[in-house]
Structure formats: structure tokens, C-alpha cells
């Protein structure tokens, strides 16, 4: 019997004992699909989407297979991380077309979660740039799918959380960039209404947009923050700097789990006040390297240990623009009044959705919060918030989720039955599954 090890997502909740098999060759994937299994990348999803009692790690399948610098097309195995892709393509003047807030997820994981970034309002999610997928199905066969070939499998896999089969390789259309730097404009806002107004008014003026929100304030200062806008900087703006310096390693590492009570409402209010007031003027312009702009938390290794051994939940919701600002203000107010201290609150705007059956983005606002797991009341409290999101025709991001109830999930994702039908066609015995898919009733 294969030895099991304790595994978790980045939020360290829940913990699952798993038998881990490492795939080093394409043939390993075909053999692994004979019994119930979950494809696993770098475990950078937060909840239980990357967890199951038997997983196959694809991290060894990380080779670059083909690169066309004329068309900006990269074909690579699914286990390669965004960090490794950037190191290779940046000297040629390319960058990932979409990136989440960390560069350490695998390419396969980004596709399975259909990740979005600071540019969704302008350019869409990862799905917009995936040209083709090479997949190993439950019967062990290797197939290719795209918008024109097995399109139903293609759109079920983008955002399908690894439940349709192994992604062996993907062809990705890269973004041509003039340098490794971002021309950033930071706008300081006084309250939630101003934060939303600045985000919506500027989203068609800038490719990248994200807002840090002070989620611990109440009353007139609720939702105050800093909106960070960005464009890729041209060579003339660098003033002699080399145009394509890569990223370094993280400068600090959290060496141990912090005591659970360190990140409390009082200490976080002090931190938020210092961060908010560090910008004196309402508007501030700067030239920023891509690493701190896109991946500020990557500078601190194992930063999830700051939340203690019990871990934390990342709670990300999306709600339509119609009444969306009021809905999120209601959520923030309830969280602040409940004393649920979130060290991180991030607001972005989304453009139109794509054809992914379980893809998360919808046109509207999206808010992401880190919620420390302090007591047994945290999860029931979030269930009450989910009811508000359902009523607003919003949804929760599956790549961040660990607690969503299956009836709320079904209400949030209207194409669920269509996804299940595609999964039955390509995986009739339900071999690809996860703790998340079992919890939500997909498997």
C-alpha cells in the first residue's frame, strides 16, 4: 500500500491524507487514470480543489516543447510554473497574457482554474489565450481539443478544476511587451463609493487595475483604499535601465507558524492605517518592476504561515455591476461588524464572461478576502454571506473555495448540468475527482 502524506492547499485548510504519485512521462498519466485520481500541480489553489485521497503530481512534466517568437506561441507541459515561463520568454519580449497574484502556479493549474488577473476587464481570463490542449482522458487516450476540435471538452476543461482529465500540454498565446516594467498610477480613495467609482471610470483607460481595500473600517471610511493602475512601460521611460531584468528569489521566509492571535483586528487596523497613509498625495506615479506589481506576496516565502496552524480561507466573490457595489459594501460592513479581521482585501473589475462552463468571471466586481480560521463560527458566518451572493446572482471562485454548500454552488453556476454532461461523456465512471467535486456534488 502506498504511503499517504498530509497535503493541503495554500490556505492550509482542510488537511487531507493523500497517496501522491509523481508523473514523469506521458505514459504515467495514461496508467494513472485507471482508478479515481486528481491531477495536482503546485497546490497554489487555496481550498480543497487540489486535494483528494489519491493525486498525481504533474510537477516533473515541466518541459518547454515549442516556442514560436514570431507569433508569440508557446507550447509547454502542464507542470511548468508561470515563474519558469517568465524566465524563458521575457528576454524575447514576451510575458504571460494573464497572471494571478502569484507566479508559482503551474500552467495546467492556471488553465484548470481559468485564472484571471488585473487585466480581465480589458483582455479576459486565461481561456482567451489558450489555443489548444493535449489531454489524457479517463480511458488513457491522448486527445487534442481547441475551440474547433472537441470544443465541448475544451470549454469544460477551462475552469473545470481538473475534473475532465489530465492536461499534458497546452499551447498559449503570449503577450508582447516592451519591457519588464509597469508604469503605475496609484490613486488614494476616501471610501467605498469613491473606490468603486475610480475603478469603473479608469478600467477602459488602463490595461491593469486592482484596488487594495481597507476592510476593517466602518462608517464613512468603509472601503477606503488605493487603486493601482498600470501599463507596460516603453524603453524610453526606463532612463537607461536594462529593459528585461528577470525576477529574483524571495527576500524573506516565514520560518514557522505564527501564533493564531497575532493577526487580530487591532493589529491589522494599525497595519492598514500605515499602508493607507504611506501615500501622502491622492495620486502617485511610479515605474515598477513586474515582480512587485503583479506578485507582491511572492517576496515572502511561506507567507501562509502567518495565519497559524489552523490556516485561513480565501473568500472571493463576483457580483454583477447592477447593485454590485451595494452588495459588496453590505458584505464588507457585515464582516467589519462581526470582527472577522481580513488582512487582505482586493477589488477588481471583470469584463464579459467566456464560454467556460465553470469559469468564474462575470461582468461586475470581484472582491477577495483572507479570512483567518480562528473559531468554529467563521464558516457558518461565510455561509450567510454566500446566501447574499446567491441572491445577487453572483458566485464564489472555486479555486479559492473550501466551504461552499452544494445548493449554493448549483445556484451560482447555471451551466453546471451542461458541465456534468460533458464530464460523463469523457469520464463516464467519474475517475477524475477531488475533495471539492465530492463536496459540491459534481462527483
If you had to describe this structure to a student in words, what would you say it looks like?
With 443 residues, the chain is of the alpha+beta class. It folds into two domains: 64-177, Uridine Diphospho-n-acetylenolpyruvylglucosamine Reductase, domain 3, CATH 3.30.465.10; 181-405, Alpha-Beta Plaits (2-Layer Sandwich), CATH 3.30.70.2520. The chain is 26% helix and 25% strand. It contains 13 helices and 21 strands. It has an eight-stranded antiparallel beta sheet. The chain has a five-stranded antiparallel beta sheet with strand order 5-6-10-8-9. It has a four-stranded mixed beta sheet with strand order 1-2-4-3, covered by helices on one side. The protein is globular. The mean pLDDT is 94.
List the helices and strands and how they pair.
Layout: E1 4-7, E2 16-22, H1 26-32, E3 38-40, E4 54-57, E5 64-68, E6 73-77, H2 82-89, E7 94-95, H3 107-112, H4 120-123, E8 130-136, E9 142-145, H5 151-157, E10 166-173, E11 175-176, E12 181-189, H6 192-202, E13 208-213, E14 225-232, E15 252-253, H7 265-277, E16 283-289, H8 290-294, E17 300-301, E18 312-320, H9 324-338, E19 345-350, E20 364-372, H10 378-391, E21 395-396, H11 406-412, H12 416-426, H13 435-439
Parallel strand pairs: 2-4, 3-4, 15-17
Antiparallel strand pairs: 1-2, 5-6, 6-10, 7-11, 8-9, 8-10, 12-14, 12-16, 13-14, 13-19, 18-20, 18-21, 19-20
